[in-house]
Amino acid sequence: MSDPTPTPSETSASSEALESSTDGDAVVATATNDSGEEFVAAVEEFVRSDDDIVFDDVGDALDDLYNSSMVDVEDGQMVTGSVVRIDRDEVLLDIGYKSEGVIPVRELSIRNDVDPSEIVSPGEEIEALVVQKEDKDGRLILSKKRAQYERAWGTIEEIKESTGIVTGPVIEVVKGGLIIDIGLRGFLPASLVELRRVRDLAPYLGRELEAKIIELDRNRNNVVLSRRAYLEETQKEQRDEFLANLAPGERRKGVVSSVVNFGAFVDLGGMDGLIHVSELSWKHVDHPSSVVTVGDEVDVEVLEVDLDRERISLSLKATQQDPWQEFASAHQVGELVYGRVTKLVPFGSFVQVGEGIEGLVHISEMSQHHVDLPEQVVTPGEELWVKIIDLDLQRRRISLSIKQAAEGGIVAAEYQEHFGEHAYDDEGNYIGSGIEGEGPSEAEEAWAAYYAEQGDGEAPGSPEPSAESPAEAETPAEAESPAEEEAVVEAEPAGEASDDSPDA
């Protein structure tokens, strides 16, 4: 058996081989007791030398390496990042900054009241604008909406310079119009949604609409659109053809599309025409809605066609009987008619003597005696007889007289029919027929029938003789009795009973 103990020469060779094999790596070796202390000292020196290298090369540059790995941001800067978290009221975005950026829900979309999870998803790469580098809580505030605005404005300005036509969905119905998503919040006024004004805008929500840009203000972040302008351009040929086939005086059927303070618009089946409030009725109209409502089918007459402005003027009253013409055909100067006081003015009173027909009783024609104020003789709502003293159809004016009515005269035919022929002589003068003490006179009964037919309520008067009975008090009487042809009985002014009345 050989001795395993190495010889001195072998030990020396092993040490040299070990030192050459380390070459800066960790030293692992076995040594003899004689060389152990020298070996340990060598290792300690190597470790100290290695620590110096690490601290010199890395320790001083650690902050620089950390800072160089982050992006540098400033307010108003556009950044791109990845969505790392979605909360109910905010979204966190990693843009490589020292902390995640926060996008408040109000800065997430141009739409209001949105669910963040419907706008972005985790891991999605999105673009945002730096609103505030550091708020009071040290957070980085970002805005996806404003970044979208910045990108969209450039596109919208280019479109405005070219065709001016944009397309987008209706995302909101607001007071006065619609909001369309065109990358920006484009406002479409209600009056410019269609060729005619639309009252109910709710059905447009969610619809994709094409419109023309008519106003652009980047400083105010304001974009105004017009769909009507777009429709007018695309439908110009059809509109020109429609107008060319429309002539003044022509009558058309249409449907009331909208009612406004100054009149009503009627859809003629291709374009809208306007009926001005003055053309709605022969009577005075307080508001167009008292005459027509949206959806009514009406017959109208074309008054004017403006080809340059593409406007059509219509009339509803032109298709109806002119009450003035009708009244003038049925009455003549000198006749007595029954009317109602409608208004008092300093110079007299107006009396309605027919449907939509009012005449003026001048203060000088109110009584035989001097009158300072009209209310000394009549009151609004009072019914009385008046005489027609002038009828100007062209100017649509009727002059009436209470004073002359009290002197008697020929009663208009429509009143004779209700009183009965026996109550008048051959010339139409009222002679009366009531018999005192035998209940209502035939005249009173006739008045009751007349008022029932006209729908104006009960006849003024009662079985007892009184100043309120139109047949006895307010009906002018110029009776010529067969026995006393020369005796003339005059009725007192309206509202006063005559002691000489043949029926008294």
Automatic annotation (TrEMBL):
InterPro entries: NA-bd_OB-fold, Ribos_protein_bS1-like, Ribosomal_protein_S1-like, S1_domain. Pfam families: S1 (PF00575). The keyword Ribonucleoprotein applies. The keyword Ribonucleoprotein applies. Residues 1-33, 452-504 are annotated as: Disordered. It comes from the Bacteria. This is 30S ribosomal protein S1. It comes from Candidatus Neomicrothrix parvicella RN1. GO terms for biological process: translation. The lineage of its organism: Bacteria, Bacillati, Actinomycetota, Acidimicrobiia, Acidimicrobiales. Gene3D superfamilies: Nucleic acid-binding proteins.
